[in-house]
């Protein structure tokens, strides 16, 4: 999970408790509408996305901010107050956002209004069903194993599954808390949502129905899944905790576990204009692949701060942003880094290029801007 999302979750949880005390015992953050705020632009924001001339930011208390061109930001009406973590545009009107407590929301009017399409209670039931089916499958496979090596593998998988079953039982008592950390759609109908503890859902009907497909990934210890991206030819990639990297060349039906260059958490990834795959994460770790993830080389980022997000500027410059206001700009030809620090010194959770050499970021202090020095380009 992104460290910035964890920090924001703590802030959100504290304030949510205050709202709950005011609203009474019936308050549920999943179903409570996002409160309208006079200074929503200064609140905790996590995700940032743009489609043509429309920019959207999401964050704590279900906040969704929408900006057309260079106009003022407007807060949308949202039917949940959970911490929202990521955005995905399908087209100018259709947008998805993922959030904590198992929430997925969708807009069909360009972000002005939103509908809740998944919540944590549905996710809990779905997970229990999946765990039972998985246990039945592995038990039968163990009974029919052809040799000791195969039997040992199924025993190992059953042992790992038992921990997930125990956790799910506890979760039933506590209630929904599991976050989705990203949502990604191949087209208007076919999409995925990924998140904590190896959670992966798939829909083939535009989000009306979802199914749990955790078993498609070789992830028995249920590491967090942080980010899903694609390249120009449509291959899908999942980037996660403990250096987990997965690739699918058939629209998510099958996934290969890639040989990761790093065993610490990776928080994000992107493809640059040369179709090189970049992954990044803890302690300023940055790796680039020239062969679609088959191999990687480490790139010096000139920082030891966690890197949470990235974008590609119009001229091909790769920009990574992270803790303590850190922003690293990589020359598209030499990959040499230029490091800057935003004056706020707060963790940055997402970044985009705005007009010209102006960058727009979101984080603990809300919406922020940074002018990339013209002499550096």
From TrEMBL:
Taxonomic superkingdom: Bacteria
Keyword Signal (UniProt): yes
Gene Ontology biological process terms in this record: photosynthesis
GO CC entries: photosystem II
Pfam families: PSII_BNR (PF14870)
Alphabetized UniProt keyword annotations: Photosynthesis, Photosystem II, Signal
Sequence ranges assigned to domain Photosynthesis system II assembly factor Ycf48/Hcf136-like in this UniProt record: 173-258
Cleaved signal peptide residues: 1-20
InterPro entries for the chain: PSII_CF48-like_dom, WD40/YVTN_repeat-like_dom_sf
Protein name: Photosynthesis system II assembly factor Ycf48/Hcf136-like domain-containing protein
Organism: Aliidiomarina soli
